[in-house]
């Protein structure tokens, strides 16, 4: 099945001086212009190409990689605005992506960088973008468990913290007390389910919560100590930035964890770092 708006692997059917034609199944043959060819190909060869709808409303092919395919989110810059909507650059030089006014949560201006969800409009069959994410999220039950690792995409910043998209399917919130490192719109990172409230809203953490957080960090510390010859130049006096750079955790959690390892007799805390106990 051919998916317009996504990367497809298509077979070369014929070669010409200006490019080659690919078998796009139900869409017929599609031209891949010569300027996109970076290798010698023959009839029967298979190529990975991105299919989109060109300005003449025909299916076109390119080897350029879009910032986001249909069904994905990506940060894009607004290149122009007209009576139809805003046009953003999405990695395809021949065609910018339209965000209709009806799909803009707030009016967009030239030069602005926004997070965009790409979809194919059923009525017009056009590939368009939207900054209104609610209708694409929370449509399936949130069957997560506490401390489950998930993929996060930072989508919004609010007075409460950062709203993140979980596994491309649900909304979640990272409160300021759970923020580690620098977060910004469009950043992708791993996170953990902190809690699921009675109203279905999901709280997130960037490290495991409870005892699991301590156990996980303790294992990482001991593993890194073993790799580094038994010594690390980090202790309870180290800066939060140095601790975060090494373990992506807060200084408070690090201090509690090495304190526990010390009590268990697994490490020795020295003036300039920690050392594996003999």
Relevant terms:
278 residues, 38% strand, OB fold (Dihydrolipoamide Acetyltransferase, E2P), mainly beta, five-stranded antiparallel beta sheet, 3 helices, 4 domains
Global morphology: elongated
The percent range for helix content is: 10-25%
Q: What is the string of helix and strand elements?
A: EEEEEEEEEEEEEEEHEHHEE
Distance between the termini: 61 Å
Structural class by SSE content: mainly beta
Which segments are poorly predicted (pLDDT under 50) over 5 or more consecutive residues? none
What is the fold-level CATH name, i.e. the topology of the largest domain?
Answer: Arc Repressor Mutant, subunit A
Number of strands: 18
Mean pLDDT level: 90
Radius of gyration: 25 Å
Provide the CATH superfamily of the largest domain.
Answer: Winged helix-like DNA-binding domain superfamily/Winged helix DNA-binding domain
Number of helices: 3
| Largest beta sheet: strand ordering | 3-2-1-4-5
Please describe what this structure looks like:
This protein is mainly beta and 278 residues long. The protein folds into 4 domains: 7-62, Beta Barrel (OB fold (Dihydrolipoamide Acetyltransferase, E2P)); 73-134, OB fold (Dihydrolipoamide Acetyltransferase, E2P) (Beta Barrel), CATH 2.40.50; 149-205, Nucleic acid-binding proteins (OB fold (Dihydrolipoamide Acetyltransferase, E2P), Beta Barrel), CATH 2.40.50; 210-276, Winged helix-like DNA-binding domain superfamily/Winged helix DNA-binding domain (Arc Repressor Mutant, subunit A), CATH 1.10.10. 14% of the residues lie in helices and 38% in strands. The protein contains 3 helices and 18 strands. The strands form 4 sheets. It has a 5-stranded antiparallel β-sheet, with no helix packed on it. Strands 8-7-6-9-10 form a 5-stranded antiparallel β-sheet, with no helix packed on it. A hairpin with a 5-residue loop joins strand 14 (188-196) and strand 15 (202-205). Helix 1 crosses helix 3. The protein is elongated, with a radius of gyration of 25 Å. The mean pLDDT is 90.
């Amino acid at each position: 099945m051919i998916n317009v708006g996504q990367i497809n692997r298509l077979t070369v059917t014929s070669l010409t001086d200006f490019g080659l034609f690919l078998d796009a199944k139900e869409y017929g043959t599609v031209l891949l212009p010569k300027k996109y060819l970076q290798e010698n190909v023959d009839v029967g060869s298979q190529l990975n190409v991105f299919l989109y709808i060109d300005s003449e409303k025909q299916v076109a092919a390119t080897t350029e990689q879009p910032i986001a395919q249909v069904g994905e989110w990506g940060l894009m810059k607004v290149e122009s605005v007209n009576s139809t909507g805003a046009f953003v650059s999405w990695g395809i030089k021949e065609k910018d992506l339209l965000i209709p006014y009806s799909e803009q949560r707030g009016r967009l201006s030239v030069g602005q960088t926004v997070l965009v969800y790409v979809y194919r409009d059923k009525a017009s069959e056009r590939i368009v973008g939207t900054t209104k994410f609610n209708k694409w999220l929370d449509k399936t039950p949130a069957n997560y468990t506490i401390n489950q690792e998930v993929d996060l995409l930072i989508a919004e910043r609010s007075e409460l913290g950062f709203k993140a998209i979980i596994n491309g399917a649900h909304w979640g919130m990272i409160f300021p007390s759970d923020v580690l490192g620098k977060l910004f719109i469009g950043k992708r990172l791993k996170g953990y389910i902190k809690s699921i409230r009675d109203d279905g809203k999901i709280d997130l953490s960037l490290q495991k919560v409870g005892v699991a957080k301590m156990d996980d960090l303790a294992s990482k510390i001991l593993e890194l100590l073993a790799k580094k010859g038994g010594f690390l130049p980090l202790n309870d006096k180290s800066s939060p930035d140095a601790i975060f750079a090494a373990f992506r955790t807060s200084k408070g959690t690090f201090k509690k964890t090495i304190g526990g390892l010390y009590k268990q007799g697994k490490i020795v805390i020295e003036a300039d770092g920690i050392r594996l106990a003999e």
